[in-house]
Amino acid sequence: MFIKIKDLTKNYNNFCAVNKINFQIEKNKTIGLLGPNGCGKTTTIGMMLGLVTPTEGEILIENKSIRSFKRDDILKRFNFASPYVELPKKLTVKQNLEIYGRLYGIKNLNERMNEISSDLDIKNFYERKTGELSSGQKNRVSLAKSLINKPEILLLDEPTASLDPDIGDFIRSYIQEYKKNNRITVLLASHNMSEVERLCDSVIMMRKGKIIDSGSCEDLIKKHGRNNLEETFLKLARS
Amino acid sequence: MNFNKIYALGLRHLYLIMNSFPRVLDLIYWPTVQIFLWGFISKFFTLNSEYYNNTVGIILTAAILYDFLFRASISFNMMFLEEIWSRNFTNLFIAPIKIREIIAALTITAILRTLIGLIPAVLIAIPLFGVSVLSLGMPLIFLLLSLYLFGVTLGLLVTSGLLRYGPSFENIAWASLFFLAPLGCIYYPIDILPLSLQIIAKGLPLVHIFEEMRSILMNNTVNYLNIFKSISISVIYFIFGVIIFYISYFGAKKRGTLINMGE
Questions:
Q1: Looking at domain A3-77+151-238, which of 3.90.980.10, 3.40.640.10, 3.40.50.300, 3.40.50.2300 is its CATH number?
Q2: Which among A46, A78, A105 has the least Cβ separation from residue B4?
Q3: Cα(B210)–Cα(B144) distance, rounded to whole angstroms?
Q4: Residue A115 has pLDDT above 50, yes or no
Q5: CA distance B86 to chain A (A)
Q6: What is the C-alpha separation between B44 and B41, in angstroms, rounded?
């Protein structure tokens, strides 16, 4: 198994944000992390990115504890995008990609920047300041930054939140296409059920810091006797 | 240490300055105003004070050196605050860069911001008030080194507070230097302080730096032991600052504040 989460727990004083969760992700699969707001998705992602220290439990990459890796050795295999995390607004798109390319130690950086900016159609606002862009453009730049290092593991937190259907579809199609052509494992936290159905091989449902169910979208829908993933989500979230 | 990564972080702040003319203006404006203000005060005291009689430029030189310290500290804080204000904090801390490389990048880049602000002000002081800090000679380099290390240390302590308490600690960033200024004996000799405060003041590098500056300008003598003492104290504070920064970083990871740091 590529990623193994073992009894992962995070307590903040008396509040348990994540409660002994266990799951595994196979290499090159996309897993959806679903659950109502405050269920522990972001904390789980934070622990995987090394931003939050777990109270208990382990995160294993290829059966090796994440703690046994050097910080920069493990982080160069990861990347992350979220509309709630922005790139420096006063820098141009090109400057931001250059800086993150350098931080991730990318060889042939100009080539990589050209490639990713063409793929994500951001060339026409390449020289504009990131803070002046629309939400859709910012999301594409954020995704470009998250793929600049060709990560083995990509964590996406609501990548299409607050986007119009057209741009949302562009992002989803791009992720699908990128997955076809690259070996990448994706953990996707989202509230958009059609997005999850379209992109994910299986899903993990969380509530109050615990995993309440998991499996493929079809299996979960069938198991809970619902017509689609949204209905299944509502049933589980309200139970 | 990976110097490419340190360079990348430095470049981020260089681009930030280069992309905004008001930002450059802001960097230059305040030191220049300070020089004008203290230049006139200095001129007044030179003409009317027995202590400063015939010692043109002591107050102005002290003001320039103090501003150097102030700018070094504020530059360090500002660069860290920029990451919070731009909500880029998470991106920075998930990048494969070591914490010591972040500290090194901020320390090195802070000198650039400091000099952009201070060099025009220092040059203005020469024709306008006939005062040049260069008259301190070779010891100036060591005094600046000591001031810079201490300024960065204050920056490290404030950024540690930002990591610990979040953006609400920002106000402390601005107040931090004013808190120490009375004990630094920047414009007056240490004897002015009550005995109890003299003991505390001697534990700061500032007293040794500014006492030495006055001694060079007034007596034309250089006491390298005093300079060495100030650098040594600054180095000790710097190491202390780095340790506090690391403690705050690991504390922030425990409390989960790194993940939602931002306005």
A1: 3.40.50.300
A2: A105
A3: 11
A4: yes
A5: 5
A6: 5
